[in-house]
Write a structure and sequence with these properties.
Shape: globular
Number of strands: 4
Structural class: mainly alpha
Largest sheet: 2 strands, antiparallel
Strand order of the largest sheet: 1-4
Number of helices: 9
Distance between the termini: 62 Å
Strand content: 5-15%
Radius of gyration: 20 Å
């Protein structure tokens, strides 16, 4: 009885007409994202369950800080993805410390997670069209994109480091403005 019900649900979810309507309707996309985010926020009552849910994105986020910091001589001195409770009572999921933050590397090292956005775009543009159109694949794709996009956003501490050096802000502002005007 249960096996038949599950089989019927599975068949319905993978029916081509259902999938076409589901994939083409942004309402369902937003609904799935909100459900995934609600599930994620429910885990915040437990530090370890929260860490388990957040570890993939935390690894990506902190790795980019570490890599760009190393590339630009910010000298990363620690790397952690283990959660700890911050002074404000919220959890800090991970961190990277630097020994040589200067005007030329503060902005790139602290805003490095923004590099996840082109990765998410690439996956959407070139990987999603080649995935078999199944309900499970679509939900996994949404989960992956949610992790990538959410963890591309620099934290408040990241923004504080980015604005430490006004000369760096002026230099990078000039570079980005020049690039923007050339387009």
């Amino acid at each position: 009885m249960i096996k038949d019900a599950l089989l019927k649900i599975f068949m319905t979810l993978n029916d081509p007409s259902f999938l076409r309507n589901f994939f083409d309707n942004r309402f369902y996309l937003i609904l799935v994202v909100i459900i995934l985010m609600r599930i994620k926020y429910k885990t915040y009552h437990s530090m370890w369950l929260s860490a388990l849910v957040n570890i993939p994105g935390t690894i990506l986020h902190e790795f980019l800080h570490f890599f760009i910091g190393m590339l630009l001589n910010a000298r990363p001195c620690n790397f952690t993805i283990w959660p700890k409770r911050g002074d404000d009572g919220n959890y800090v999921m991970g961190s990277v410390g630097f020994r040589n933050i200067t005007f030329y590397n503060a902005i790139p090292a602290s805003l490095a997670p923004l590099l996840l956005l082109p990765i998410g775009f690439y996956l959407n543009r070139y990987f999603l069209p080649h995935m078999p159109a199944t309900f499970v694949n679509y939900v996994l794709y949404i989960l992956l994109q949610t992790i990538i996009i959410e963890n591309s956003i620099p934290s408040g501490a990241d923004f504080r480091i980015a604005r430490m050096y006004i000369s760096g802000i002026i230099i990078y502002g000039f570079i980005f403005l020049s690039i923007f005007l050339m387009l």
